[in-house]
């Protein structure tokens, strides 16, 4: 039994490396139900199995609420060509040229909007979160890896799926990277890099960047690793801001939970790198891990609105 | 006596530090007449005097051809807020918050489209020149100073007049800059910087970067200065391409006349800096010093087309 309760309801589906999260979201962006499942393991059929799982979650959301689902918003990691509905490649998922949008649309029988997880989260921060009211904004997600999303004059800029891929540009810190280059932004300033570099330097394993952040005032090794990460972020932002003059830079991802411990030194170092450029407002993400889901809902609602 | 000859005619006016160039351009982008005059000298009334001179040139174009001018396209240097029609500031013209668009519209009585000289030239290269057929492109003008123009998904991105201001970002070459920082892109890779750095290194004055380019194979000082400039360009492009994934990078301005002597080493060094990113096509500008005029005509024709 399904019923239409006034406005549209969309299913937001966020595919991650370990979990698929789904939420039913109404036109007011209220989440009315949530479901999640483990991501099917790697293998040649992983894209179809993920699509099967996503379709099951969408059906469960409809069953649980008795609401009709009008559209799906699907977001995935990797190099995502939103227009074609294809994951061009994804290291974490082991995908190349997988038509995820159509796989989900076929299984659900619903219009399916499609996007990149970080870019979609950036869109949510722009429309609903820390960059609301900005004309142009950059969202920099610092987690296991890192990536940026750009909303320019109100439009999400995709670059064919390649925009914001800043992970492997040299920020001037002598640190070898898995890509065989040195000084890559991701190898210095991602949350994973901070933990790894601290352990490499001290021999002491840590759970993550948060543990390093907690040691900043007492442990010179923690402070040095943190300062390198801050430097990398400031360099990346100096180039980005000089090129695009965005009003607002939103720092998101796990590392943003460090709050002022991260933002204050980044802001200070960035100010020293800018002269004639327009300085952006630098803020921490406001939506946390809801950004992906809300962004996916926005994609679906936008598509329904035509 | 003016007559309307079929389609629209627009007056393209390109205001530079030494000359104001004007051209009458028809809908097919054919230049049917050209006029130029010296730019009025610096002073408190310079903006109004420039507008007077521009209006005189527009009247002369109409008189010379007997055609009615339907609109003006006006391009100027500096930090240009195209939407407000204002030069926010221009060091070379000595302007702050000058409403150039309205000054010219009042004097000509014509609809006046307004833009930044480099960004407008970039638009012309995108629509008619070296980046024609691209979806997104970057135009990097290397002359006395340097600046970039961005056309993203077909739209010129202005950033409130600040987009593409790459001159004062550190490219990692220890060279002091007039802005009191060190290693600024403009201080290393502009045409003026190449000439200045060669003279500082050798004590030998040169006429410009072209003279340094001519010495590359025989003079190690010329080669060293050139290599630094190439390095700066490659670093700036690595960041820009990683962030925006443009299809095409067009190198323009006086330095682009060096052709393969510039483009080949830049392409080689850039390839070494990119890994997972999408590599752009790197080309020299095709329109030369006509780009500003054609771009101004495009702005005016676009405005007429609504």
UniProtKB/TrEMBL annotation, chains A, B:
The keyword Acetylation does not apply. InterPro entries: ATPase_NBD (IPR043129), ROK (IPR000600). Keywords: Kinase, Transferase. Gene3D superfamilies: 3.30.420.40. The keyword Manganese does not apply. Belongs to the ROK (NagC/XylR) family. This is Glucokinase.
């Amino acid at each position: 039994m399904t019923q239409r309760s006034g406005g549209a309801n969309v299913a937001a589906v966020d595919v991650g490396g370990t979990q698929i999260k789904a939420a039913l979201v109404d036109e007011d962006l209220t989440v009315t139900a949530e479901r999640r499942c483990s991501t099917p393991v790697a293998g040649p059929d992983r894209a179809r199995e993920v699509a099967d799982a996503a379709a099951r979650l969408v059906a469960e959301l409809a069953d649980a609420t008795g609401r009709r689902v009008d559209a799906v918003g699907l977001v995935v990691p990797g190099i995502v060509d939103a227009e074609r509905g294809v994951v061009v490649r994804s290291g974490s998922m082991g995908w190349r040229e997988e038509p995820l949008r159509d796989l989900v649309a076929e299984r659900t029988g619903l219009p399916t909007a499609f996007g990149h997880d970080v870019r979609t989260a950036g869109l949510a921060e722009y429309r609903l979160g820390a960059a609301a009211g900005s004309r142009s904004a950059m969202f920099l997600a610092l987690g296991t890896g890192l990536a940026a999303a750009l909303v320019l004059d109100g439009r999400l800029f995709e670059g064919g799926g390649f925009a914001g891929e800043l992970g492997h540009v040299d920020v001037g810190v002598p640190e070898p990277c898995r890509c065989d280059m040195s000084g890559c932004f991701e190898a210095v300033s991602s949350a994973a890099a901070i933990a790894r570099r601290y352990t490499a330097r001290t021999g002491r394993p840590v759970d993550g960047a948060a543990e390093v952040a907690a040691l900043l005032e007492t442990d010179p090794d923690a402070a040095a690793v943190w300062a390198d990460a801050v430097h990398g972020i400031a360099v990346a932002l100096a180039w980005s801001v000089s090129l695009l003059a965005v009003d607002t830079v939103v720092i998101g991802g796990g590392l943003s939970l460090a709050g002022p411990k991260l933002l204050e030194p980044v802001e200070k170092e960035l100010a020293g790198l800018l002269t004639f450029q327009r300085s952006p407002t630098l803020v921490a993400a406001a939506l946390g891990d809801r950004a992906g889901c809300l962004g996916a809902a926005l994609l679906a609602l936008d598509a329904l609105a035509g």
